């Protein structure tokens, strides 16, 4: 009877290992899909969406339409900043290397999330082939003021090692929000 129970557990372990492998592959595929795109690709996407949804041809927008769209974008940006607590203060991009199908850009980004200041510096390697573009973040360097938040340093170093900006911003947003709640609670009791 014990052998039967062990076999059931071994079968269950095998199924779980296969499921973990499938989920890991799916996660890596999703990460590759959520890469950064060049400014030209973003503009081409915006233009194709405009044609599809608004039926407008390229370059036929009046200044009043552009102002209305800018107002909508500013409203959306304001909503996202309130929702996530992340406010970008500066961004610079410098192309380090550009060949036929390979581009390396150096990005510097600074901002704050609630009361936590952050600064990022990373290189974005884009490889193009006929069907797709793949992008990889390398040399990620994250600088944060850790003064009273000493537990942030472990998080920052692990985020820098794995080079995943989406996870960094999600975690930073959540952590900073709870730090803000904690600070308000302590002020309330003083």
Automatic annotation (TrEMBL):
CC per GO annotation: chromosome, centromeric region; nucleus
Annotated InterPro entries: CENP-P
Keyword field: Coiled coil
Pfam families recorded: CENP-P
Coiled coil: 6-33
KW Transport (keyword) present: no
Signal peptide: none
Biological process according to GO: CENP-A containing chromatin assembly
Name this protein carries in UniProt: CENPP protein
Organism of this sequence: Phaetusa simplex
Gene of this entry: Cenpp
